[in-house]
Amino acid sequence: MALKGIKVIEMAGLAPGPFCGMLLAEFGASVIRVDKVGNGQEYPDFVAHGKRSIALDLKTEEGVDIFKKMCNCNDVIIDPFRKGVMDKMKIGPDDIMQINKRIIYARLTGFGQKGPYANMAGHDINFLSYILLLQQMNCFHLGLLSLFGRANEKPTPPVNLAADFAGGGLICALGIILALLERNRSNLGQVVDVSMVEGTAYLGSWFFRSQLMKFLWDKPRGQNILDTGTHFYNTYETKDKRYMAVGAIESKFYNILLEKLGLVEDEVPQYQNFDKNHALFADIFKTKTQAQWCAIFDGVDACVTPILNLKDTLHHPHNKENETFKVTEDNCVIPNPSPRLSRTPGISMATCKIPEQGEHSIEILTELGFNCQEIDNFVRNKVVTQALSQCKL
Predict the structure, then answer these.
(1) What is the phi/psi pair of residue 210, to 5°?
(2) Catalytic sites, residue numbers
(3) Which helix (H) or strand (E) holds 185?
(4) For residue 392, which of 368, 365, 369 has the smallest C-alpha distance?
(5) What are 338-372's pLDDT values in tens digits?
(6) What is residue 393's three-state secondary structure?
(7) Model confidence over 80-91: pLDDT tens digits?
(8) Which residues contact 388 (CB under 8 A, 6 or more apart)?
(9) Is residue 78 within 8 Å of residue 8, measured between CB atoms?
(10) pLDDT score of 324 more than 60
(11) Dist. CA 72–CA 98, nearest whole Å
(12) Model's pTM, two decimal places?
């Protein structure tokens, strides 16, 4: 696998950090999750499959020493905490890089390491709202979140996909891999500073750079070409209360769309009468079921596709042939790793169990060279905890 031999320390946290660790693990990296001692995480980690767990009290001198010993033989640290948390425990980048000059120290935060919001709490919806777009023609500022939603309605967050996972975890994994690649030349590690605000802004590069294209963005939210302001880039309800997605932007695709709907462009001009044409399309799509529309549009270059729910996506013929998903023993639908590498593809860890908090504590301490007496003292003094079902002392 592409990342075989790479060793990662993932500090337990919410979704973005664990997702970053999952990406690395499913392409071959060995990932150890550092959990807190005590009652466990407040929320379950749904992407911890295939990782190992050590429960470590980093508020103790012994816990810090153990962590530093781990850092000396690992390649990557994923730090999901706010600015200064790791530094206060003397395990920030400056401390760790004195021990291991080759380590990649990835800091994944919402607002970054500096600025007035660096120490402020937030979630995906907050990070997305702070990414500003300048509407040149109207001279007012908008958050990237303002792009999502229908006309004359409040902005609608696209769940927590954009900032947490795309602008956060995915960008962090990219930064780590870039730093590992550069390390082959310099033999030195470096800090990877990932702000979910900045990562999501970078994902939106096309939106920022296209703001001067007046015909794309000269109207309020929900009234532009790509934000459901037109009839040819929109979603429609079907007879059986399901939905179809229409994205016939190019004229050649639009003409095929009209043909399949029994219309001609003279009746439904592409760039005129958007509201009237939308109402017409809505009435037509309600005359057939989703399956009937699929029979009409499948394999046709009209850019019309069914909107599938999570259950249906597993059974769609295209996804089945490509083995896009797999099903776990508890009937959970899991995407397989992407991108696909021809020689060293990723392998989904979803069929592996989620580790209990501290399940591998003793195993990891043994690998670090601690003897049985030392490990027993760590456990007795609650410097580390070991899941009882896995205890081998």
Answers:
(1) -95, 5
(2) 123, 164
(3) helix 171-186
(4) 365
(5) 999 999 999 999 989 889 999 999 999 999 999 99
(6) coil
(7) 999 999 999 999
(8) none
(9) yes
(10) yes
(11) 10
(12) 0.89
